[in-house]
Automatic annotation (TrEMBL):
It comes from the Bacteria. Belongs to the DnaB/DnaD family. Residues 319-390 form the DnaB/C C-terminal domain. Pfam families: DnaB_2, WHD_DnaB. InterPro entries: DnaB/C_C (IPR006343), WHD_DnaB (IPR058660). It comes from Fictibacillus phosphorivorans. Residues 10-251 form the Replicative helicase loading/DNA remodeling protein DnaB N-terminal winged helix domain. Residues 409-423, 435-444 have a biased composition (Polar residues). Signal peptide: none annotated. Residues 408-462 are annotated as: Disordered. This is Uncharacterized protein.
Length: 462
């Protein structure tokens, strides 16, 4: 058998943490239900550790715990084991050079209902207390309930009291603060098993009208579960969606994923709302590459290619389109930018490379089919930086060249085609051998090849 000093000695340190707060009923449960099972000292040790959670101390030596409880380390270890065994404590250990560090994570006791329906702890307590005392203790937790079957519920719903938020109050900053990185990694929020539930009046949304507008060929009726129905009411109220709008969002989610949950629907509606109200087309297109994804942030370019990388990283897609046309980008072009950044989740820098690539290769035209095809491909490749996107563009060019050579060799192209005005950007030419080096390259032939490649891509994307 392991002796206690092999597990813990007075100089070993410990810290205490928890994931909730003890409430009045918890104190009664600990004293009346757990104490008969673990004993008075283990119960006292548990309450002592709870007090230390609130003293805001980082670490203590076990000698301190011995002084506070006036028990030996052997007794403290025995009490700790009982708390661990009954589910009131989790212990974590890290071995150091000269001592060990422990983290004691306190667990909340079961609720009275959970304890007496446990099937194990309740039987153990019954054997400890006997039938008469067990019944007396259990009855002390009873809460008298009035029969309300003959009463009419008149509880106010959330929508009866509170008004929905205006679009101006639902900014992108709010979304980020609520849903992204709310908590540091080393903290958690207090939890409570039983809590009130927000209920919305069904009169706030015509659920049947929404169901009637959902195609049964796209979304089977059984997909709309009671839990999803509850989420639909809340989302419709928060985002002020009409039945038709909600039916479209449901069909979009199910069509793209083959299933639908409250969370996936919330994300789809949030994306739609941000696009329609707060982050409209111009605002979205004005975003620039995030600083952590900038390869040349705070650096001076040392080559022509680095100048182009810097440009893609610093300008927004909106500005890039302005630079190309010299005028305000059209709504059609901005919708393609939104598709890249919202639907395919491409970063602004990657979107810039894609726009430059297609404009250069397609006679200054943004073809919807080509944009969508390349954007989805780059999204699957998880391209996030400008350099990654440029590498993918060069790879596309190389693959096309290989395919083109086969076509030319088979004589499938008409050599008399008219020359195009396509200008290929310098960064796409990196892997080519220059005309001065080879002495036999032909610029007209290159541009003709580019045009034919784009024609084939556009035809295949229709």
């Amino acid at each position: 058998m392991t002796v206690h000093f092999q597990e813990v000695v007075p100089v070993d340190t410990y810290s205490v943490q928890c994931k909730g707060m003890l409430h009045e009923i918890d104190h009664k449960v600990l004293t009346m239900l757990y104490q008969p099972l673990v004993g008075a000292f283990a119960h006292s040790l548990y309450m002592t550790l709870w007090c230390e959670v609130n003293m805001d101390r980082q670490t203590q030596k076990h000698q301190h715990l011995m002084n506070v409880t006036q028990f030996s380390l052997k007794d403290i270890l025995a009490g700790r084991k009982k708390l661990e065994a009954i589910g009131l404590l989790k212990t974590f250990k890290k071995d150091g050079d000269s001592s060990r560090e422990y983290v004691y994570e306190l667990q909340l006791p079961l609720s009275p209902n959970a304890f007496f329906t446990d099937g194990f702890l309740s039987i153990y307590l019954f054997n400890r207390l006997g039938k008469a005392k067990f019944t007396e203790v259990r009855e002390s937790f009873y809460i008298a309930q009035t029969d309300v079957s003959e009463y009419k519920e008149v509880t106010a719903s959330f929508s009866d009291v509170f008004t929905s938020l205006h679009p101006s109050e639902m900014s992108s900053k709010s979304y980020a603060e609520i849903n992204e990185n709310v908590l540091p990694e080393d903290v958690s929020l207090h939890e409570k098993d039983i809590h009130g539930k927000v209920v919305l009046s069904e009169s706030t949304f015509d659920f049947e009208a929404m169901v009637n507008q959902i195609s049964s060929f796209i979304v089977p009726k059984e997909v709309i579960t009671p839990k999803l129905k509850e989420a639909i009411y809340k989302l419709a109220y928060i985002y002020q969606l009409q039945p038709m709008d909600m039916s479209k969002q449901i069909q979009n989610v199910y069509y793209s994923t083959g299933e639908i949950t409250a969370e996936s629907l919330r994300k789809e509606i949030q994306k739609w709302y941000r696009f329609e109200h707060e982050e409209g087309l111009p605002v979205l297109a004005l975003k620039t590459q995030p600083v952590p994804l900038k390869a040349l942030h705070g650096m001076q370019p040392q080559s022509k290619e680095e100048e182009l990388i810097k440009y893609f990283e610093e300008v927004s897609p909106y500005r890039l389109l302005e630079d190309y046309s010299g005028t305000t980008p059209s709504e059609v072009d901005l919708k393609l930018v939104a598709y890249c950044m919202i639907d395919q989740n491409l970063t602004p820098g990657v979107t810039n490379v894609l726009l430059d690539y297609v404009l250069s290769e397609n006679d200054m035209k943004l073809a919807k089919g080509l944009i969508e095809r390349i954007a989805s491909h780059w999204a699957r490749k998880k391209a996030q930086t400008v350099i990654e996107a440029m590498t993918l563009a060069r790879d596309e060019k190389r693959k096309y060249k290989e395919w083109q050579d086969k076509k030319v060799n088979s004589g499938s192209y008409n050599k008399g085609n008219k020359k195009s005005n396509v200008t290929v950007p310098d960064w796409l030419k990196q892997d080519r051998v220059s005309a001065d080096q080879t002495g036999d390259a032909n610029t007209d032939t290159t541009e003709d090849e580019n045009r034919k490649w784009l024609e084939s891509l556009l035809n295949s994307s229709k």
